[in-house]
Amino acid sequence: MSQFQAGSPVDPAVARRAQRLWIAVLAVIAALLVVRAWVGTEVGSGPSAQVVHGYGMVYVEQKGAMHVQVPASAWAEAVAADPAQRQVTVSWPRTVGVWIAALMTLAVLSFLWRDNPVYKLAESVVVGVSAGYVMSTAVWSSLVDQVFGKLAPGLTKEWLSPGLTVTETDWWALVPLVLGMLLLCRLSAKLSWVGMFPLAFVVGVFSGWRFVQYVESDLLAQVATMFDPLYVPGPTAAATVGGTLCAVLVLVGVLSVLAYFFFSLEHKGPVGGAARVGIWYLMITFGASFGLTVMGRIALFAARCEFLFDDWLWLIDPAGKH
Amino acid sequence: MSRSVAVLVASVAALAMVLSKFIVPMESAETTVAEWFNAAAAIAFVLGGASLLKMNLLAISARGPGWGYSAVTLLAFLATLGVGLLKVGVAPSVAYPGHRMSGSTDAEGGALWWLYEYAMSPITGTLFAMLAFYVASAAFRAFRAKNAAAMFLLGTAFIVLLGRTYAGVVVTSWIPADMPWVSWLRLENLSAVIMSVFTTAGTRAMIIGIAIGVAATGIKIMIGLDRSYLGAGSGGGNG
Amino acid sequence: MASHGGQPSFLERLDRMDRRWIFLAMFVAVAAPILWVGVTGKTFPEAPTPAVQGAFDAVDSLPPGARVLISMDFDPASAGELQPMATAIVRHCVLRGHRICAMTLWPAGGPMIDGTMQDVLGDRPDWKYGEQWVNLGYRAGFEGVMKQMNSRVALAYATDVRKTPLGDIPMMKGIEGIADFDLLVSVSAGYAGAKEWVQYSVSPTLTGPRPLRFVAGSTGVQTPQLIPYYPNQMAGILGAIKGAAEYEFLVNEAVRKADPNAVVPAKFQEAQRRMAPQLFGHVLMVALIVLGNVVFVGLRGREARA
Question: What is the CATH architecture assignment of C50-264?
């Protein structure tokens, strides 16, 4: 790979080279996918083993009204027992889904090369689907039972939520409905001022709750830990020394970091010294946070790689899914 | 006038929630308010969806650059909302097999589940996974040990990065594990000490400071001093 | 600044290196171990840390039949880290015979519950829904849901996901408020999650007659924020994929101790498998930081000399 410059969009030679490179890369990927299909995968074991020349396929077994995903080996065994069986079959919606998921994954990863229409398309899809998903989930899980069910229990129970336990109309449910309608007025430029009332309600409730719980849990309980004994006896001398030293270091650390964040006193003399120690503690804290953040991000990418290599390409099968 | 009413609403709500913690008869009021709050939170999601609809419709009608992507977003949103609200493909619940709408909207096998599993899940997962690459690039370009504090930070990062994997075990395997006076120097033990001592201390102090800040902000809202949530002036209302 | 005759030096070329080379290195560092582990099935041994051991002991010490509330407060964006954690905890509860009540505060958390329970209970037809486990699903409101559940669970969840009223579910009999559960577990990716559970539901019970025991699993980003709550306000923390791997190891060891001939299914070693790409990814990060600083020091020295 040479020092590939993104190139000026007005330079036709660079644009042509970029286009040829893209075509070459896509052709290589397509060729590899074809080779993978031709190589095939053996599923099942012993006399029921079958070679499947596809991949990314999902098999399901019918159980009552539902279809439950099963490994490809289950399909191989079912076919070996009865070639005409229809109990365990390929699920084409799910198989198409895996391929779409894989292509969308690659589309998003293509952003690492540079921004491109395919990435933008995937981004647009996820924004729309996420918003639609969250909205329909919120409506069904909360609004249907908590608002509509309380205002019109009979209709709601008959048409929408058969397990509704409310039998009589609860007119207090009008309050959140009205609050919600006022909130929706924020969509209108003329009426958006009306939306400040439900917002004020939410902010007020939230701040009241947080006031109590932050003081109880984060202030009082945390300060109480600073009164834990500094002498920590252990089963051995080393454990006692270690435990005691750790307790002292924690206390010193909390006090010194608090000194650093206390800006009403100038950081000079003893306060300045404590603040400097606090900075060391904070640097160590941030270093540890960085390490853990890296760990998290790599785990997320590892999960995507597993999906591509396992669920889509069938190159590995660590969990025995196929 | 309307802003004053809104400030009053916020103050009264905040004060009521604080008092309900200490006045037993007010506990039932708190749970009722929680119910309203939850319903309002659900309606806020509806507001989000409606706002998305409005913004994308505007973008499409303006025919600005990239309006096609807005069309895709809108199509995806409406399709997902449609199949979600109508519970397309969702099998009835085993408790109410004769009632078409009794199943859970995101139950496996339904259309909404399909969109979640094969569109939303992989794309959001990959978007966040890309951060692994950016953090690597940032590590090469930006993390410079320019002073002692930065060296502390990087040194700790090295200990935690190596100590939380088998690499740490290998690098310091020469330190005896059965000698407690020195075994804490093994990278895996050192990273645990860093978490349990230094990170605990640093974060505890930050938590205490944040709690004091939240309490101060809460008091300012209760006495009407903090009005930032109302925005900068509003049309149609005054005061 | 170029050196001889305007040609950039090696350090300068390194400093201006296209970041896509770094992307490629990260891709190889993660993908290659995944393929290697996938083919060989080898994993690294894990040594549990005290916080993870505390979480394990909190679940293990409960008597069989104890009721555990598990809140899966995460979505697909964090599933790579947290799904193995959730699976390991649910599996541990099932092995100990605890009754599980699953819920979520995140809109996209519902399928996370379904997937986890399916993974663990898929080959356990003896586990009856309603008697040994129940899925309450999602409710909007975050802290509002917690507030309701503190006084009465049925206020937040009148029915489960199957629309069965809570009072008709056998395993929920006797559960009034959240403190009636024997253990609360939150597998959390952010807000609302473990921190809010500590603040709103756990801390208020600690000075009462029946403190609510709490165990948290969190992403790497959130773990430092939760550490100060351990051990006074929570019994244990599973921090990032490493915590998940240690917990999985403990559960699998317990299985092997009970039955030396037991074969642990590969699907219950997901976090341990992901520690291999972690190792190479972390080594690469350290190498990149060192290399970046070598370049920085080298170029700064050259400027000083010039």
Answer: 3-Layer(aba) Sandwich (3.40)
